[in-house]
Every structure is written in structure tokens, then in C-alpha cells.
DNA sequence: AATTGCGGTTGACATTCGTCACCTGCGCGG
DNA sequence: CCGCGCAGGTGACGAATGTCAACCGCAATT
């Protein structure tokens, strides 16, 4: 019997996935969570064999959850199930010790199979994605990422500077750096590109 | 027995929802489609009682599908199930004759209940959303919408002007108008807000 | 014929952005 | 101790952006 914990922020999808897994005779969904924090509490409480988690969730993301599972040495495998075919996400996921990465575009039958394979000690990564992942490294450093994130929300250089306790000029320098590294023409394109690649 | 057709582009979610509905003794998922076109073919073929559809799908969107169902006089109810709590979407959905609008954030149990109510001739609209929908009309005119869309992609005023065969100054004026109407500080915020409201 | 309104244009202005060269302080290995 | 790299800051310059007021056909009124 494979004991599964589900983390997914959209209640309807969570319920549906739960129904899907309950159809499998060898699976047991022991609990499900609407965000990373709750998932972590439930992991400590139930010690499931496998955690199936989305990435983009309020509070603690799926990637951060995976990292925490590894750091705190919880004895469970983590499988990511997400909409986003972003190379950067896959890379960070693997670095966080994730053993499975599926897309919501994949057929539903594949989920149970993947969980079984993972439970036996295997790895499951969407093959299409695996190639892209190592093709292109994230050229941004931490500061550039932060600055770009905020600028992408529409904050001006001054506002970003205030939030990060930097000077206005420095923020513009980072932005300029990021724009250059990404080979685009302005902050908006830089934000869109970085986001699409999963570099956030 | 309620005969249901499912339209949803993400295969895993589609399969999971199907599993969820099959658990109900009075429901029968007669077919499922990955996009609007396919859904329409299957509707003609199976004549289901209820169509459950996402909005954002490749090719034909859920809203366009609903419209077609109404125009061609197919005898089935349409229920939208989507991620997007955008007032503009709800409004367009209702105008297209949709009888149900649920969010994927809503609990999974609610889906089957909603389908039963709709099948009995009722309407189901997420209450939270219903208020917003008529509260706030889209303040943008066509030009402002076009300009904002392009500017949001990262195009400069000049580039937008070239695409729309306008002058640079005019584009800046429209942008300025839009920014003013939306009560924000720059084009980036304006784009985000308009998009979030479903005004695109 | 004069009036109003509307879509588009122009030009001027203050701000903000994007770029670049150069400065500062600080830790770290030699 | 020196030199080096590195995170951050400064200042300046041109380009793009955001704001306004005024202007131009042109069509529909009156």
C-alpha cells in the first residue's frame, strides 16, 4: 500500500486527483493540503511514502517544500505535478532532491504509474522537459532576480530600492544588467522572458 | 442518469475530474475533449445533458464553445469550470447562455451538486464572483485595449504605433488615458490590472 | 453656415529608464 | 601588508515615458 499526500492549491483539482488515486487499489491518499505550510505539517504527522505537490502555491511553494523535506530528512519521496514546463523549475526541483516531475498535460493514467515507480526507488521526469532543462542556465544572480520580480509588478526603480534597502541607482544597474544578460530591450520583456523560463 | 461531457486541456486534470464524476452513481461521463473543437464534435455525436468546460483552451475557448452550443441550438447545458475569477469572463459566459460558472478553487464536492442542480434547470454561479461581475464595467475603449495589450508585451510606444499605424504621440496618449482610467501609475500596472479583471 | 463632438496629431515639459564609467568599502588569499 | 574581487553607490547623458493643452479634419447636428 502506497501512502500518498497531496498538495495542490486548487480545491477542485485536489479533490479530483484524490478521487483518481483512490481508484487505484494499491494507493491510499492519507491527507491533502492546500498549501506548502499545511503540507509540511501533514507530512510530519502522517509520514507518507510519497508527496505529490504542485509548484505554485501560496506561502510555501512546492519547490521550497521539497527542499524542506530534504533538509529535515523526512523519509518521503517528492513528486512535482505542475502546469509549468519551465526548465528552471525542473532544474531547481532536481536540485531539491525531487524524484518525479510530471506535467498536468500528461495523461492521467501516468500519475499512478509514476508514483509506483518512484515508490520502488525510481525516477520519473517528463522526457521532453529533461532535454531543455540543461540546455540553458539561468544567467541571473539573486539580486537581479529580486529586482526583476518587483519591477515586473510595476514598481518603479525608487519603489524597488525602498523595498530592498538599496539605492535607486543600484536598482537601475541591476535592471540594466538583467536586460543585457537576457538580450532584450526593456524591463518588461526581461520580466516576461525570465518568468517564462522559470527563472522568476 | 446525467450524461456529462468534459472539455479541459490539461490531460491529467481531465482524467482526474472524470474519475471524480464517475464516483457519483447518477453521473456518466460519456466523453472528454482536450479542446473546444473536439468538444463540439463530441457534443454533436453524443448529445450529452451537460457540458463541463474550462475557458482557456487551444483553438476554441470554452466561451466560444458555449456560444456555439447556443447558436446551433444543441440541447445541453454548459457549465464553466475555470481557474480565472475574472469578472469579464463571467459576464461573457452569462451572455453566451452558460448556466453554471464554478472556480477550480471551489471544493470538489460542489461540482457534482452543481451539475445536478443545473440538470434540474437551475443556475449555479460562484457567489463571490457574481457581485464583482456587475459592479465594475470595463472602462477601456477599443484603442486603449489594443495599445495596452501590445505595451504589456514589452513593445515601446514607437513599436506599438508602427503596428497599429498610429503616431507615437497618439499611442502615448492612449496609454496615459488607460493608466488614468485604471487609477494606476504606469503601463505595467495598467496591463496587469486590466488582464486580471479579464478586460485584456 | 455655424456648432458640436470625436478620433487622431503635435509639441512641450518633467520624470523615469537604460547605459556607462568610475568610486567606495570590505573580506580573503597570498 | 598588499592586491584582488565583489557588492553596492554615484553621477551624468540620452532615450523613452507620462501628462497636458492645443490643434486638425470630418461627420452629424441645429
Topology overview:
Two copies of one chain form a homodimer.
Chain A (H helix, E strand, L loop, with lengths): L1 E6 L3 H12 L4 E7 L2 H11 L3 E4 L8 H10 L5 E6 L4 H9 L4 E4 L5 H11 L4 E2 L1 H9 L6 H11 L4 H8 L3 H15 L4 H11 L3
Parallel strand pairs in A: 1-2, 1-3, 3-4, 4-5, 5-6
Helix pairs in contact in A: 2-3, 4-6, 7-9, 7-10, 8-9, 9-10
Chain A binds a DNA duplex (30 and 30 nucleotides) through helix 9.
Kindly describe this structure:
- Two copies of one chain form a homodimer.
- By secondary structure, the first copy, chain A, is an alpha/beta fold.
- Helix content of chain A is 54%, strand content 14%.
- The first copy, chain A, contains ten helices and six strands.
- In chain A, β4 (77-82), α4 and β5 form a beta-alpha-beta unit.
- In chain A, α8 (157-164) packs across α9.
- The model of chain A has no long low-confidence stretch (mean pLDDT 91).
- The A-B interface holds A 9-20, 23, 81, 83, 102-111, 151-154, 156, 184-186, 188-189, 192 and B 9-20, 23, 81, 83, 102-111, 151-154, 156, 184-186, 188-189, 192.
- Chain A binds a DNA duplex (30 and 30 nucleotides) through α9.
Helix segment count of chain A? 10
> How would you classify the helix and strand content of chain A by structural class?
alpha/beta
* CA gyration radius of chain A, whole angstroms: 19 Å
Q: Identify the CATH homologous superfamily of the largest domain in chain A.
A: Response regulator
Shape of chain A: elongated
Low-confidence stretches of chain A: none
Average residue-wise pLDDT of chain A: 91
Share of residues in helices of chain A: 40-55%
Oligomer: homodimer
Largest interface: A-B, 36 and 36 residues
Major sheet: arrangement of strands of chain A: 2-1-3-4-5-6
Largest sheet of chain A: 6 strands, parallel
CATH T-level topology of the largest domain in chain A: Rossmann fold
Note the gap between the termini of chain A.
38 Å
CATH class of the largest domain in chain A: Alpha Beta
Strand runs of chain A, count? 6
Order of helices and strands of chain A: EHEHEHEHEHEHHHHH
CATH architecture of the largest domain in chain A: 3-Layer(aba) Sandwich
Amino acid at each position: 500500500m502506497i501512502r500518498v499526500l497531496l498538495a495542490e492549491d486548487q480545491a477542485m483539482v485536489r479533490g479530483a486527483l484524490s478521487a483518481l488515486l483512490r481508484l487505484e487499489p494499491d494507493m491510499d491518499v492519507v491527507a491533502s493540503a492546500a498549501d506548502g505550510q499545511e503540507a509540511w505539517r501533514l507530512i510530519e504527522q502522517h509520514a507518507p511514502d510519497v508527496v505529490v505537490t504542485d509548484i505554485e502555491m501560496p506561502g510555501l511553494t512546492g519547490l521550497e517544500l521539497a527542499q524542506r523535506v530534504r533538509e529535515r530528512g523526512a523519509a518521503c519521496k517528492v513528486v512535482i505535478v505542475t502546469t509549468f514546463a519551465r526548465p528552471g523549475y525542473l532544474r531547481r526541483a532536481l536540485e531539491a532532491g525531487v524524484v518525479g516531475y510530471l506535467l498536468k498535460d500528461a495523461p492521467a493514467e501516468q500519475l499512478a504509474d509514476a508514483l509506483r515507480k518512484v515508490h520502488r526507488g525510481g525516477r520519473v521526469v517528463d522526457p521532453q522537459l529533461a532535454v531543455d532543462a540543461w540546455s540553458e542556465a539561468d544567467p541571473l544572480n539573486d539580486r537581479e532576480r529580486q529586482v526583476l520580480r518587483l519591477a515586473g509588478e510595476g514598481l518603479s526603480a525608487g519603489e524597488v530600492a525602498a523595498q530592498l534597502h538599496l539605492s535607486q541607482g543600484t536598482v537601475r544597474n541591476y535592471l540594466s544588467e538583467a536586460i543585457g544578460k537576457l538580450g532584450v530591450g526593456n524591463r518588461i520583456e526581461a520580466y516576461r522572458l525570465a518568468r517564462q523560463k522559470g527563472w522568476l
